[in-house]
Design a protein that fits this description.
Length: about 425
């Protein structure tokens, strides 16, 4: 078995590095902290959840608008790493800044959070693009999958440390307030992110590139327009992107809004943190299980299963009343969270023309970014109109139903026997 190269390890460990942000800032600690600050400032529960949804939508909309150009620019000689470094620095530094936002200033907290999201997702555009530079095509599935697995483990370690600090502070075991311990969690996230990105910065370089145009921006717009025209020629690829747009929006919204919804139900911050940690642990083996089952039942059928599970999640959430209900809901999400994301990527890879895979995956990422706008907005608007977060989560059923209907018209890719 060929050992992993320094470039491959450096690339994979960025997933280990930035996944701390995904669980601590996007999903767990920050939303709970924000809800606490907003509630203390007199903001209604439904409104504070809506404002968080709007912040998520705003950040992802910015990335969706500039994503096509960023992805195109990444192919120009000598620019990929510079742009990666800029967004990585923006995300990690602003994450640390969250710890220093004055008490009670929930508006500034949301603004800084939006900046962290732009940095995090912006860096990921270039991180994904670096895969073609670190390993040959026959090893990409292995390297990408291992990075995905490292991400689950890498997110768990700083998460456990953060939970321990918060719980110990809550019990008075350590001489910190819970709020101070939570702020330390933001610092831990930023430091973890920076330290484990060093191998990526040292060992990963841009190998594949195109010569720079005299006008890089204009050239990038032309290339994006050309890529879009190419996508429209492949009806099955375009249909998949539409299906993906809807169902992955629902998946991402549930991930980013889950703790805010749990808080609205009256579940304690301690319970939420424990539930989210167990969810991460359970999600890892189920992601692998989805991959194995796809070999027996096909990737498309397993995507149907994943989307079906999420529809059940939305319906169950509407009737949820107790902490036990939330546990059940979290475990349902854990069974399909990693699987649906991993199989979507591999399913798309089988559909696209291999000689143009980089261009097509650029649009795959773009559709994912645009999808992250509608779900949080739908939850926010519905929650405010009805005065209930339950209706907001239930409204996501629409996205999953549309996704599964469109996916039905996407042909099963032909698989090569290895």
């Amino acid at each position: 078995m060929k050992k992993f190269s320094k470039a491959e390890n450096g690339w994979m460990f960025y997933d280990w590095a930035n996944s701390a942000y995904s669980i601590i800032i996007t999903t767990a600690v920050f939303p709970i902290f924000y809800k606490s600050v907003a509630t203390s400032a007199g903001v209604d529960n439904a409104d504070s959840t809506a404002y968080l949804g709007y912040a998520v939508a705003a950040a992802t909309f910015i990335l969706a608008m500039i994503g096509p150009i960023l992805g195109s620019i990444a192919d120009y000689q000598g620019l990929k790493k510079k742009f990666f470094l800029f967004f990585f620095a923006l995300g990690s530094v602003s994450t640390a800044v969250l710890a220093f936002v004055p008490d009670g200033n929930w508006v500034l907290l949301l603004i800084i959070y939006s900046i962290t999201a732009v940095g995090f997702h912006g860096a990921n555009i270039f991180y994904d693009a670096f895969l073609v530079d670190v390993t040959p095509g026959e090893r990409m599935d292995k390297i990408s999958s291992r990075g995905f697995g490292l991400g689950y483990v890498g997110s768990a370690i700083p998460f456990v440390i953060s939970i321990a600090l918060i719980l110990l502070a809550d019990k008075g075991v350590i001489p910190f307030s819970t709020a101070f311990a939570t702020r330390l969690a933001f610092i831990i996230t930023a430091v973890w992110w920076v330290i484990f990105t060093i191998p990526m910065l040292k060992n990963v370089i841009q190998i594949h590139s195109i010569p720079r145009d005299s006008n890089i921006i204009a050239g990038s717009f032309r290339r994006v327009a050309t890529t879009f025209k190419e996508i429209r020629k492949y009806r099955h690829v375009f249909l998949f992107l539409i299906a993906y747009f809807f169902y992955i929006d629902g998946v991402g919204t549930i991930i980013s809004m889950s703790t805010a919804y749990g808080t609205d139900l009256g579940i304690s911050a301690t319970s939420l943190l424990i539930i989210l940690f167990v969810t991460q642990v359970v999600a890892a083996p189920f992601a692998i299980l989805y991959g194995r089952l796809s070999q027996k039942y096909t990737g498309k059928k397993m995507l149907y299963v994943g989307i079906g599970v999420y529809i059940i999640v939305c319906i169950y959430a509407f009737f949820m009343k107790t902490e036990t209900d939330f546990w059940i809901l979290a475990m349902l999400v854990a069974t399909s969270q990693g699987g649906i994301q991993a199989l979507s990527r591999s399913y798309f890879a089988k559909l696209v023309p291999k000689e143009k895979s980089n261009e097509f995956f650029g649009f795959y990422n773009i559709f994912g970014k645009f999808a992250s706008v509608m779900g949080p907005l739908l939850v926010g608007v519905t929650a405010q109109l009805t005065g209930s977060s339950s209706y907001g989560v239930f409204s996501l059923v629409v996205l999953f139903i549309i996704g599964i209907i469109v996916l039905k018209f996407v042909p099963e890719p032909e698989l090569k026997v290895v």
